[in-house]
UniProtKB/TrEMBL annotation, chain A:
Protein name as it appears in the record: Protein-export membrane protein SecF
Gene Ontology terms: cellular component: plasma membrane
Membrane-crossing segments per the record: 21-39, 138-156, 163-184, 190-211, 232-258, 270-292
Membership in a protein family: In the N-terminal section; belongs to the SecD/SecF family. SecD subfamily.
Entry keywords, A to Z: Cell membrane, Membrane, Protein transport, Translocation, Transmembrane, Transmembrane helix, Transport
Organism per entry: Thalassospira povalilytica
GO molecular function: protein-transporting ATPase activity
Cited function: Part of the Sec protein translocase complex. Interacts with the SecYEG preprotein conducting channel. SecDF uses the proton motive force (PMF) to complete protein translocation after the ATP-dependent function of SecA.
Gene transcribed to yield this protein: secF
Matches recorded under HAMAP family: SecF_B (MF_01464_B)
Primary location class: membrane
UniProtKB/TrEMBL annotation, chain B:
Full protein name: Protein translocase subunit SecD
Membrane topology: Multi-pass membrane protein
Gene Ontology molecular function: any one: protein-transporting ATPase activity
Membrane-spanning intervals of the chain: 362-380, 387-407, 413-434, 455-480, 486-510
Physiological role: Part of the Sec protein translocase complex. Interacts with the SecYEG preprotein conducting channel. SecDF uses the proton motive force (PMF) to complete protein translocation after the ATP-dependent function of SecA.
Family: Belongs to the SecD/SecF family. SecD subfamily.
Locations listed in the record: Cell membrane
SUPFAM superfamilies named in the record: Multidrug efflux transporter AcrB transmembrane domain
């Protein structure tokens, strides 16, 4: 049996020819995401906003509107009540209460009291204002620091053009993934932030593989025009890029379908991010090298070595 | 260089064998192996609270109140010394920033400063004009806070131990925080209730000149204060506040035991004083028959019985409208002792045992299915080589479990997601290598040369690609909390072990196959 080749061996897609289209599509997506982020904003979970979350299991299908009336009348501000994966599973979220941590505690006590004895509390989370602010800060720093470290690493390993292009592609992926969160309204909490950072790592990973090949071909095909060389590099790594994305997606789809409600948002973010990351490493990162005027830079010494080899 | 030296092959096999041995306890009932020695296999992976159920609480000790109390006492000491030298002065409200005293006559200031400086060691003096401002120096301040935190940790530990759960973990975090983790707790509200209270109990006499309402109307008599009534029966009788003497007649520090019990069929809390406390209690109750004795807990009067007869022997009971649970909790708090400073709960995350179990099951199903998908796909795509990659993939999972067991890392729900993600990404190295081998074959190299070149030229790519993901994982680990740390851990371990299994293990298998069957055609 001949093994399946997802991408035919003699694939030769002129990606660079379409690069204007990719730029336009990407710019549009990035700008739309940024605009959405600025206007509608992320649906921050209690990790970052502070507040209370209670997951309950009721006997028989939950009476959502009854719960809404009961908890809405407690005077605790916005109460969000939604079914969570099953008819008898309900997620209750309260906004951060005015006042200090004591006020949060009192509100949680009121909620558990109002829920009564007939429901099982499966999970309760309370994040006070102080911790919420700290988590927000830590989250921000973790994104900035990992992006910086990745950039520094790439800069060490490649020419500066590669570093800039890969970080632009990375930011592109992160911004659009955030835009995805705004559009879908999926809650943005610590887990989804972790997903975004993983997407960052993955996106770079994908880009690095293509760049590695470009670097190799730069040495190997000295006469080839840069755009042709980029196309050749993308095409010869295309099979790997799609294979890896595909296997990762397979695993993630299993996680999405069966991993339970609690990590669904997290998995969704990863799936979306990997699709975007694959697109950007093929269609954004490499073409950007032309914009950045990548040139052959062959030091004398290296040339001598190659001649000997 | 496809052929392995013997010792290299042995090393690869040894790592695999160790992985299997250290991962094995996770598939056997716990306790199968003795677990005394930390380097021997036998340990199972630590499940996080989100998977085994339990409560995580982050508490903050109000260190300002510790400092405020100390500065209050320091101001008192200085004023006593000043009075002896007949220097007239006026106290100011003590804050956490220092003790402050105003000297009334300018000519006394110089002398007063000297007295203040000599009052206690490790203090620093400042203030302008008539004001003297005394603070502890940084070392003394740190010591004060450290001692308060150490005491708080001890009290918290005693309180949590009273709940009778297994392996609670209580640790200091940062300057003034305490993390409490109690696995397998059914009802976090109980933990909340006993951790949220200072449990400072003192006995005061109820003032017999005025009622609280009269005092509110006409002014407080000197040396008294008004405290709210906490008990339901008081509230029912229309008593909302008590006017009590400021002076503490017996302090809760003198308590040695407390138990919930019943009196006239109602739950009450009994207590016992040490010798000094018992003597003072006997003395007070002898001299003040007919007056009310207020039992003040955390600034509220929980009960104020009339003293009918002297209570000698140092035993007593607190009556009130307690439920059985409340009586249990109160006696627990009194037994465990008061916190040196108030504490508040900054963050709580509790997961019931049912949800934890559900999460484990969901995670297992997802991991197995993800694995099956990927395994099947690899075989379809790469045939024989796909099978080698799949064996390496399984080995990788075993290694992840083994490393986590040895390090006693905590597996959380996002951690399971990290493992599933690793399944998808671990084959990447093999994909890179195999694709490269295909290319080399197309370029007309021999089988052995292609395989060799495939491994060699994929190497730097694999390293670059994995290191960038590793950077993201490490940053996540250092910034993330609880569950997210778990994700970072499995992702990082998975990346590192996958480099071993995907590169060395597959290479060993392929080299053995090439050596044995000397293939003339490469189906890839």
């Amino acid at each position: 049996m001949k093994p399946l080749h997802l991408i035919p061996d003699d694939v030769n897609i002129p990606f660079l020819k379409f690069r204007k289209i990719f730029y336009i599509v990407s710019m549009a997506l990035v700008l739309a995401s940024a605009a959405l982020f600025a206007t509608k904003g992320l649906n921050f979970g209690i990790d970052f906003r502070g507040g209370i979350l209670v997951e309950i299991k009721t006997e028989g299908p939950a009476d959502i509107s009854g719960l809404r009336d009961k908890l809405g009348s407690l005077g605790l501000g916005d109460v969000s009540i939604q079914e969570f994966g099953a008819a008898d599973d309900v997620l209750i979220q309260l906004q951060r209460q005015d006042g200090d941590e004591k006020a949060q505690m009192a509100a949680l006590a009121k909620v558990t009291e109002a829920l009564g004895e007939n429901v099982t509390i499966r999970r309760s989370e309370l994040v006070g204002p102080k911790v919420g602010d700290e988590l927000k800060e830590a989250g921000f720093y973790s994104v900035v620091i990992s992006l910086l470290l990745i950039m520094i690493y790439i800069w060490f390993r490649f020419e500066w053009q590669f570093a800039v292009a890969s970080v632009v592609a990375l930011l592109h992926d992160v911004v659009i993934t955030v835009g995805f969160f705004v559009i879908t309204g999926v809650q943005f909490d610590l887990a989804t932030l972790a997903a975004v950072l993983t997407v960052a790592g993955y996106s770079i990973n994908d880009t690095v593989v293509v760049f590695d090949r470009i670097r190799e071909y730069l040495r190997k095909f000295r006469k080839m025009e840069i755009p042709d060389l980029l196309d050749l590099s993308i095409n010869s790594t295309l099979s790997r890029t799609t294979m890896t994305s595909f296997t990762t997606l397979l695993a993630l789809i299993a996680l999405f379908a069966f991993g339970g409600e609690a990590i669904r948002g997290f998995t969704m973010a990863l799936i979306f991010g990997i699709v975007i990351g694959t697109y950007s490493s093929i269609c954004v990162a490499s073409p950007l090298l032309i914009v950045l005027r990548l040139k052959r830079k062959i030091p004398e010494a290296e040339e001598g070595q190659e001649a000997k080899a | 260089m496809l052929y392995f030296t013997k010792w290299k092959a042995a090393l690869v096999l040894l790592v695999c064998a160790l992985g299997v041995i250290y991962a094995a306890p996770n598939f056997l009932p716990s306790g199968t192996f003795p677990t005394e020695a930390s380097y021997l296999p036998g340990k199972q992976i630590n499940l996080g609270l989100d998977l085994r159920g339990g409560s995580h609480m982050l508490l903050e000790v109000d260190t300002d109140s510790v400092l405020r109390e100390r500065y209050d006492a320091l101001a008192d000491t200085i004023r006593t010394d000043l009075r002896q030298e007949q220097i007239r002065n006026r106290p100011r409200e003590a804050t956490a920033n220092g003790a402050e005293i105003t000297i009334l006559k300018p000519e006394d200031v110089e002398k007063a400063r000297e007295i203040a400086r000599a009052a206690e060691p490790n203090t620093e003096l400042s203030g302008e004009g008539n004001n003297i401002h005394v603070t502890y120096n940084a070392v003394a301040r740190k010591e004060l806070i450290d001692r308060a935190i150490a005491q708080s940790l001890e009290v918290v530990r005693r309180r949590v131990d009273e709940l009778g759960t297994t392996e609670p973990s209580i640790q200091r975090q940062g300057e003034n925080r305490i993390v409490v983790q109690v696995p397998g707790l059914d009802d976090p509200s109980r933990l909340r209730a006993i951790l949220g209270r200072t449990a400072k109990m003192n006995f005061h006499l109820v003032n017999n000149e005025k009622t609280a309402a009269e005092a509110r109307a006409t002014g407080l008599p000197p040396g008294t204060m008004i405290l709210p009534a906490a008990d339901a029966s008081d509230k029912a009788a229309g008593i909302r506040e008590y006017l009590i003497d400021r002076r503490i007649v017996v302090s809760g520090d003198n308590l040695v035991d407390s138990q919930p019990t019943f009196s006239d069929g109602r739950p009450v809390v009994s207590f016992r004083f040490d010798a000094a406390g018992g003597a003072r209690f006997g003395d007070v109750t002898s001299k003040n028959a007919g007056r009310g004795l207020a039992i003040v807990l955390d600034g509220e009067v929980i009960s104020a019985p009339r003293i009918n007869e002297p209570i000698l022997g140092g035993n007593g009971i607190i009556t009130g409208q307690f439920s059985v649970q409340e009586a249990n909790d109160l006696s627990l708090l009194l037994r465990a002792g008061a916190l040196p400073a108030p504490m508040q709960i900054l963050e709580e995350r509790s997961v019931g045992p049912g949800l934890g179990q559900d999460s484990v099951e969901a995670g297992e199903i997802a991991a197995v299915l993800g694995l099956v998908f990927v395994i099947a796909f690899m075989v379809i795509s790469y045939g024989r080589f796909g099978i080698y990659a799949d064996i390496a993939l399984m080995m990788n999972l075993i290694l992840v479990l083994a490393v986590m067991s040895v390090l006693q890392a905590t597996l959380t729900l996002p951690g399971i997601a990290g493992i599933v993600l690793t399944v998808g990404m671990a084959v990447d190295a093999n994909v890179l290598i195999f694709e490269r081998i295909r290319e080399e074959r197309r370029n007309g190299r021999t089988i052995i040369n292609s395989i060799d070149a495939g491994y060699r030229s994929a190497m730097s790519t694999i390293l670059d690609a994995n290191i960038t993901t590793l950077i993201a994982a490490l940053v996540l680990f250092s910034f993330g909390s609880g569950p997210i740390k778990g994700f970072a851990v499995t992702l990082a371990i998975g990346i590192i072990t996958s480099m071993f299994s995907a590169i060395w293990l597959t290479r060993l298998m392929i080299s053995v196959w090439v050596k044995r069957s000397r293939p003339t055609e490469l189906v890839l």
